[in-house]
Design goal:
The protein has one domain (11-54). Helix content is 55%, strand content 0%. The protein contains four helices and no strands. The chain has helices at residues 6-9, 15-24, 29-34, 45-54. The chain is globular and about 35 Å long.
Length: 55
């Protein structure tokens, strides 16, 4: 089975990449403090925030 990196599949200036970089560079400490189960939950809060921004 060959795994293909999403970095190869998603063009550089797509909204998804821009939103991902914006969320990654933002201090989400208050958000994570509000939802302490973030690291163990099925949905990573940073990823959910990125999806909300893109949509």
């Amino acid at each position: 089975m060959v795994l293909i990196s999403l970095d190869v599949m998603v063009p550089e200036h797509r909204l998804a990449r821009v939103a991902d970089r914006a969320v990654a560079s933002t201090d989400l400490g208050l958000l994570f403090a509000r939802y302490p189960g973030n690291e163990t939950s099925a949905s990573n809060l940073a990823m959910v925030l990125t999806v909300i921004i893109v949509n």
